[in-house]
Every structure is written in structure tokens, then in C-alpha cells.
Amino acid sequence: MVISQKLLNPGERIVVSTRTHPKALLVPLLALVVLLAAAVAFQVLVDNSTARLVVWAIALVGILWFVLWPALDWMMASYTITNRRLITRHGILTRKGHDIPLSRISDVAYELGLIDRMLGCGTLVISDASTHGQVLLPDIPRVEDTQRRLNELLHELHGGAANLEEGH
Q: Which run of H or of E encompasses 61?
């Protein structure tokens, strides 16, 4: 489970809890390989120990900036759908969050590119009744299942309200 239970209200239950697809880590992984390969190649080709030390220091800074930071960012981001709201959280040093009550969601769609289809993820597009209009949740694993589950929740929410109005 990605989000802490203490952030939920009484009677609220988690329906979907996820983070972005691990494909977000492909570029940092590629950066790690390139930085290490460049540093090792420099060490083999150059005989100056001071220059080697400088190159490894630069490689370390590059690894921290292009590999570790994006990996931490991926680990700290989460998307949670409960029976009452959509909760997004992200950020490493400064945490940011956005909650949308399910009653304000007017439409749920998804977008799948070719690579997304091959990797089993996509972008969830949530339209709400606020001034923001749409919330895009990129690289959601099994996005079609997530969209279906969210639509079921919305149907229960609106169907339940309609049944109450009819006296059922």
C-alpha cells in the first residue's frame, strides 16, 4: 500500500493504490550506465590521478542528480483512489498533494501510446467540476483496470444518490 492508513478518514477504504509505472526509471537507469561507462573509460584512457578523481566526482554528482533524485521522486509519488476521493501525493523535500472528492469527478478517460500498451500502462485523464478542469495521472500501471474501477465507484456514488431520490 502506497499511502498511509492514517491519512484516511473514518469509514474510508482504499480501492486503488499505485505509483507511476517503473518505466519512469528507464531514463535514470540509462543515465547511470552512461555516467559509469564514461568514468571508467576516462580512468582507463587517462593516466593522471587528479583528473581521474575529478571525473569520478563529476560522475558521482551526475549519478545523484540524474539517477538518485528521479528514483526518489518515483518512490515518493503515489496515486490513491478511495471510496470517497482521489488522492495524489508527490515531492521529496516539499510534499505536495491534491485531493478530489469523487462527487466532483465528471469524466474518466485514459490514453495509451504504443510503448504504453507494450508496457501495460497509460495516462488516466480525470475531469472534475473545478476550475482546473482536468487532472492527468501519467504512467498508471494497468490504466484500463484503474479507469474501470473508478467508473464503478462513480456509478455506485451516482446510482446510490438516484436510488435515494426515488425512495428505494
A: helix 49-63
C-alpha cell at 1: 500500500
pLDDT per residue over 14-47, tens digit each?
999 999 999 999 999 999 999 999 999 999 999 9
Report the distance separating Cα 20 and Cα 29, nearest Å.
Answer: 16
Joined together, the cell numbers standing for residue 14 give: 482504499
Domain that holds residue 42: 26-73
**Which cell goes with 166?**
426515488
Q: What's the number of domains the chain is made of?
A: 2
Q: Kindly report the average pLDDT of the chain as a whole number.
A: 89
Give Cα 56 to chain centroid, integer Å: 32
Same domain, 90 and 159: yes
Beta strands, E only, 19-84? 78-82
d(CA 148, CA 137): 15
